[in-house]
Design a protein that fits this description.
About 30% of the residues lie in helices and about 35% in strands. By secondary structure, it is an alpha+beta fold.
Length: about 180
C-alpha cells in the first residue's frame, strides 16, 4: 500500500527506515507513551520482519521526515455465543511529538486521516470488518481517536488496558436497512 495526500505519504516500512525508527519521538513523558515509543524504537521493525504474513508495519512520511508509525495484525475474538470471530487488531499508531494535535488543510485531524488509512489497510489485508485495539485506559486521546473512528465497544482487557472494538463498513459497501 502506498497512499499520498498533499505531500504526506503512507507506505509499508522497510529496513531502510531503521535509523528513523531508532530516533522516533512520540512520547511526552506518560508511561503509556513511553511504552509505545520504546516499542517503535526497539521492536516494531523486528516484529514486522519476523511476522511478515500476519503483521503489517506502515510509516507516514512528509518530505522524507517520519511523522507516524502504524501497524496491524490479525486477531481472534471469543464471542459471547462461545464462537470466535476473526478481527484486525490495530497494533500501534504513534505520531511524532511535533505532529500530535496537527490539523491538515481543511481542518481534518492528522490522527483521523492516519487512523482511517490504518483501518482501511487492516480491513483489506486481514479481510475482515471487525477492528479492535488495545489502549491504555488512561490514554484518553487514543480512546477518543478509536471511538471517533468506529471502535465504540469497550471491554476491560487488564487493570491498565481497554479493548475497543467495532464492526466497520467497508468503503463502497451498501448500508443495510438496520443501519439506515
Amino acid at each position: 500500500m502506498s497512499a499520498s495526500r498533499r505531500g504526506l505519504t503512507v507506505r509499508e516500512a522497510s529496513e531502510d527506515d531503521a535509523a528513523d525508527f531508532g530516533a522516533f519521538e512520540c512520547s511526552t513523558g506518560t508511561w503509556y507513551e513511553d511504552e509505545v515509543q520504546a516499542y517503535v524504537r526497539e521492536k516494531a521493525l523486528t516484529h514486522a520482519r519476523e511476522s511478515s504474513e500476519s503483521y503489517r508495519l506502515l510509516v507516514a512520511v512528509e518530505r522524507a521526515r517520519l511523522i507516524a508509525v502504524a501497524a496491524h495484525t490479525n486477531d481472534v475474538l471469543i464471542m459471547p455465543d462461545d464462537g470466535t470471530c476473526m478481527a484486525a487488531r490495530l497494533q500501534v499508531l504513534a505520531i511524532s511529538v511535533t505532529d500530535q494535535g496537527r490539523r491538515l488543510h481543511g481542518g481534518t485531524h492528522l490522527s483521523d486521516v492516519l487512523m482511517a488509512t490504518l483501518i482501511a489497510d487492516a480491513m483489506d489485508r486481514q479481510r475482515t470488518d471487525v477492528i479492535t485495539a488495545i489502549v491504555a485506559g488512561e490514554n484518553l486521546r487514543s480512546v477518543a481517536l478509536c471511538e471517533r473512528n468506529g471502535l465504540h465497544s469497550q471491554t476491560r482487557y487488564s487493570s491498565r488496558y481497554l479493548r475497543l472494538t467495532g464492526r466497520l463498513m467497508r468503503p463502497g459497501q451498501p448500508m443495510t436497512r438496520e443501519e439506515a
